[in-house]
Specification:
The structure is a single chain. This protein is of the alpha/beta class. It folds into two domains: about 85-90 and about 225-545, Metal-dependent hydrolases (TIM Barrel, Alpha-Beta Barrel); about 125-220, Diaminopimelate Epimerase, Chain A, domain 1, CATH 3.10.310. Helices cover about 35% and strands about 25% of the residues. The chain contains 20 helices and 25 strands. Strands 8, 15, 16, 17, 18, 19, 20, 21 and 22 form a nine-stranded mixed sheet that branches. The protein has a six-stranded mixed sheet with strand order 3-2-7-23-24-25, with helices on one face. A six-stranded mixed sheet has the order 9-10-11-12-14-13, sandwiched between helices. Strand 4 (about 45-50) and strand 5 form a beta hairpin. The longest helix has 20 residues, at about 1-20. It is globular, with a radius of gyration of 26 Å. The protein starts with a helix and ends with a strand. Bound molecules: zinc ion.
């Protein structure tokens, strides 16, 4: 009898202690508002994490009673979301921008020149490269000419890339002391879609458009691995401070692919990188050899194709001429036969094709091409990057072609001051029509195109939901009927962005079994009538704490 009682007591003690201890996990975040973004959009209190994965999400008591964690974080009722994804960014371009003259935000031509002069005083170099100027911030609609630049810099090459990355202003020294013009003129096919703008007397103005920039970039100084590594670390911290845990890197050269692989291997990069390869011969060979490729946080299964240029430099390919330049329609920057060849390679190796496609003519062409692929592979998820000008009658083809729209809401509010001049009032119904695009396709991937626009996701939310920039312009919003909801915008930066990268089984929501890639934010994510800053408080990627304000 005594023995029986003892064994009952023992069994009771074991069951109590196992209940007290619970199932062991690495981390429990509790006392939070966990926005799961699951099918019912439920908001829970707590989440348990083990081996980099989410084990369970639920009410406070349920999680605290069930699990015993090595670490507990009391979130103080702060909001928790899946890590944000920038579905279209340029890490490598940003790293190089940081190492060259930063011209972002220049309010005048003079200010641009002053910044270059300061850089020259600090750096002994025969070739100065800078980027980020936007003449619309100087109150100028027309692209600038190089007289002042040539005067200030008579004996050193200067190349200053416009904010959109599709044109540059160079000085006369660069044009006369190098073979760049001859190189482009002697091989027009190779540089098709590129040009040196000239004045009425056929003298180059210093503005270089699209593919004609290639031989100039080839002359620019190369940065060391150490310089690039330091820059990329800074960029990663900046991204994490906004709660961005993943970037779809829109165009990787083969040499940069090797660098990124190294950074992922040796732990320099914690970010999830979804890489789109530039379709060079080396990268095509990589795709043929590796197929769909994953290495730690790096995933590669797509090519980035530049089909046309940008509206700002009139390089976007339009159906009818530019309203402010009736003899120009823009151009394809890659001949259509070449685009078609890359599409065939994508089909062969099982890669996604992500096409920079801005003008309405380009969008129509690409949708026709995607439609063909859709017939054999309805889940190809080939993307239209930017989708800025699409004629209303072509919109239906988005769904019919299975063409996944990848858009950047900040572009609409960055371009709003001059876009009507370029395309005229009668075509404004087809510009930056993100609401219509979303209604048509059902989902959209959202990014920023940093450093060619601002990476701050809260500026993106303001631009998408209010159609205003961070200084709340224009009043009432630009084409306000194209606003999307906060919920849609957040999905575009999480779940839908993960779908645009075939990663919806690992990322995009806070649900059992997915990666513990989650962010505690300082403030609730909401829409405000005026722009409000917000930042991450703590960031986890696959359960590892990679950023914290403390
Ligand atoms: Zn881009």
């Amino acid at each position: 009898m005594k023995l029986l009682l003892a064994s009952i007591l023992l069994a009771f003690a074991i069951s109590v202690s196992s209940c007290m201890k619970g199932e062991s996990v690495d981390l429990v975040i509790h006392n939070a508002q966990v926005h799961t973004l699951n099918g019912s959009n439920s908001i829970e209190d707590a989440v348990a994490i083990k081996d980099g994965k989410i084990v369970e999400v639920g009410p406070e008591r349920q999680i605290l009673n069930k699990f015993s964690a090595d670490e507990y974080i009391d979130a103080g009722r702060k909001v928790v979301y899946p890590g944000l994804i920038d579905a279209h960014g340029h890490l490598m371009a940003y790293a190089r921008q940081k190492l060259s003259v930063n011209l972002v935000g220049c309010r005048s031509y003079d200010e641009m020149v002053v910044r270059v002069l300061k850089y020259k005083a600090r750096n002994k170099t025969k070739f100065i490269i800078g980027s980020g100027w936007d003449q619309s911030l100087w109150g100028e609609e027309e692209l600038p000419t190089n007289e002042q630049l040539s005067e200030e810099f008579p004996d050193v090459s200067v190349a200053l890339v416009r904010i959109d990355g599709h044109s540059m202003l160079v000085n006369d020294y660069l044009l006369t002391s190098t073979d760049v013009i001859k190189t482009v003129e002697t091989d027009p096919e190779k540089y098709e879609g590129g040009q040196f703008l000239c004045n009425e007397d056929s003298i180059p103005t210093g503005m270089v458009i699209d593919n004609a920039m290639t031989p100039i970039f080839a002359l620019a100084p190369k940065f060391s691995t150490k310089e690039l590594t330091d820059a990329i670390k800074e960029i990663q911290t900046e991204l994490l401070s906004y709660g961005i845990t993943g970037v779809h890197e829109a165009g990787i050269e083969n040499t940069d692919l090797k660098l990124i692989e190294k950074w992922v291997e040796n732990g320099v990069l914690d970010l999830n990188i979804y890489g789109m390869l530039i379709p060079s011969e080396k990268n095509i060979a990589f795709a043929r050899k590796n197929g769909v490729y994953t290495n730690k946080n790096l995933s590669i299964r797509s090519f980035k194709v530049y089909a046309d240029g940008a509206l700002g430099s009139r390089g976007a390919f339009l159906k009818e001429p530019y309203s402010d330049k009736p003899d120009e329609t823009g151009h394809l920057t890659t001949p259509f036969e070449e685009i078609d060849r890359i599409a065939t390679i994508c089909e062969e190796v099982g890669y996604q094709m992500n096409t920079h496609s801005i003008g309405d003519s380009t969008n129509k062409l690409m949708l026709q091409l995607y439609k063909r692929v859709f017939k054999t592979n309805p889940d190809h998820r080939w993307r239209i990057e930017h989708a800025q000008i699409i004629e209303t009658t072509d919109l239906g083809a988005l769904a019919a072609a299975g063409a996944f729209p990848s858009i950047q809401p900040t572009h609409a509010v960055t371009d709003h001051t001059w876009v009507e001049k370029r395309i005229g009032q009668s075509r404004m119904d087809r510009a930056y029509s993100y609401k219509r695009i979303l209604d048509e396709f059902g989902i959209i991937a959202i990014g920023t195109d940093f450093p060619f626009d601002q990476m701050d996701p809260f500026k993106t939310i303001h631009a998408a939901t209010n159609r205003m920039d961070h200084e709340n312009r224009p009043v009432g919003g630009f084409l306000p009927e194209q606003k999307i909801s906060l919920d849609e915008c957040i999905k575009g930066m999480t779940l839908w962005a993960s779908m645009a990268a075939f990663q919806e089984n690992e990322l995009g929501t806070i649900e059992d079994g997915k990666d513990a890639t989650i962010v505690i934010f300082e403030d609730p994510i909401a829409t405000y009538s005026g722009f409000k800053n917000n930042f991450a408080n703590t960031v986890f990627i696959k359960g590892k704490k990679v950023y914290s304000v403390e």
